[in-house]
Amino acid sequence: MMNNTKFDKNTRIVIIGAGAAGLSAANALKQKGYEDITILEKLDRPGGKSLSFFVDGRSYELGTNFLAPYYKNTFKLFKEFNLDYQRFTQKVQFFNTDGSVIEFKKMKDWTTVVKILWEILFIFPVITFKYRKIYQPGFSNIPSELYQPFSTFCRSHQITNIYSFVKKIITNFGYGYSDDISTAYFFKYLRLSLLISFFFRRKNIFPEQGWGNIFSEISKHFHVIYNQNIIKITRNEKIVIQTETEIYEFDKIIIACPLDNFINIVDISPKSKDLLSKIEYHDYYCLAFAVDNLPNINKAYIVGDNQLKENQPSLLCWWRRWIDSNICTFYTIANPKDSAEKVESKIKADIEKLGGKIIEKYYIKKWKYFPHVSPEVMQDGFYEKLEKCQGKNNTYITGEIMNFSLVESVIEYSKFLIEKYF
Description:
By secondary structure, the chain is an alpha/beta fold.
């Protein structure tokens, strides 16, 4: 345990949110020697977007999925808490919108394959070295070229084959459309090791007991109070938090949940409210069904018209966690006005186009996913302004918006936040 704390070790610190960001922040505080740490969680469980369900003792994921090779902070967390993971090779297939199979060798001629490999192995490393600052925690003070949309950046830097290869995956995983999203976000995600893993279909890594249980185990080491619906937060000399059932007093507060949730309950200025109102999200759905007659593969990507923004909600991809099970999870980005019933109906229709027969419905989960700002707002200094808020009124911010929507990214930023300010 370290003792190089910037405040007294008995400083009363509250963290709002028991997801990956909040729990990793609590862990970093504990390692520095702080002893009075409380986590307030709105739900009746920890984990945030790491949510699993179980059938016959097997875990299936509704949120967080696999670990990528570069998740060094996540692997370290697993080691600290004696958590297990497994590696296995996934069977992956691409489909057209009508359900017809796309053979990989037919999808790309060898000339194109060589071009992609050249860009991945030789051009992309040079680009990422030039813009290596983006791989530090946070988005403030990054090169201005990374503000522009990903599609524009790829064309100007002559990595159009990489762009064609990964844009489908980016959309399928809920990160939106390359014409709308700043390159900075995608660079947080597209590490060289990940591109190689995608292209060569290397073994993927998953927690054996399910992501939900991962954070349940970690949460047992901290003081987490669940079912806390916060009504008001007042920040003077002390932090006073009023919930539906209790009033709490603390010295420091770390916000580790969606920032826009606090616009109407925290005593912040109109200028700060305006800043937080710039944050956008995607309605990303995960639907879990038992389905017969689908190909016996782990991962399927649907390419073509299904990936067009104007055709949402449409089936983007599906995942079979266990190759000998008929339980699969299906994913789509919906429009803000789309009801859950509309999404379910459309995805069922798309499953039938693939030849699938739905036997049983397990879950339909809508995620408020991928907090981000537009390229214009990022260029206007959004992240520089947000970072300047750190520490004001004894308030600190972590979570997805600060470093991208990946477990690894939020853990990395939470550790950075605690090391810098605590």
